Amino acid sequence: MRQAILYPGEIGYGVAEAPSLPGCVSQGKTIQETIQNIREAIEGYVLAPEEEGLAVPLYNCDAVLVEA
Questions:
Q1: 58 pLDDT above the threshold of 80
Q2: Whole-number Cα distances in Å, 65 to 5, 11, 40, 62, 68
Q3: Which of 15, 17, 22, 49 is the residue whose CA sits 20 to 30 A from 57?
């Protein structure tokens, strides 16, 4: 399981990224589509190294909500 952060992007699109997987970013037209797309991106990000016999990045991310 990986954590994803969702935020608004350009022209009404949603953007999502998985902070524990550098460069793992996706987008979608709706929140549901954005979540599905980041789920698929995370799965691909994790499967690719496994298929090559490489280590998958460990989950090393803590979430903190900071009010500013």
A1: no
A2: 12, 26, 26, 10, 10
A3: 15
The answer, yes or no, to whether residue 17 has pLDDT greater than 90, is yes
Is residue 12 packed enough to be buried (19+ CB in 10 Å), middle (13-18) or exposed (0-12)? exposed
Predicted TM-score (pTM) of the model is 0.80
pLDDT of 35 reads 97
Domain 1-68 in this protein, CATH class: alpha beta
Q: H or E stretch including 39?
A: helix 31-51
For residue 23, the SS3 value is coil
CB distance 61 to 19 below 8 Å: yes
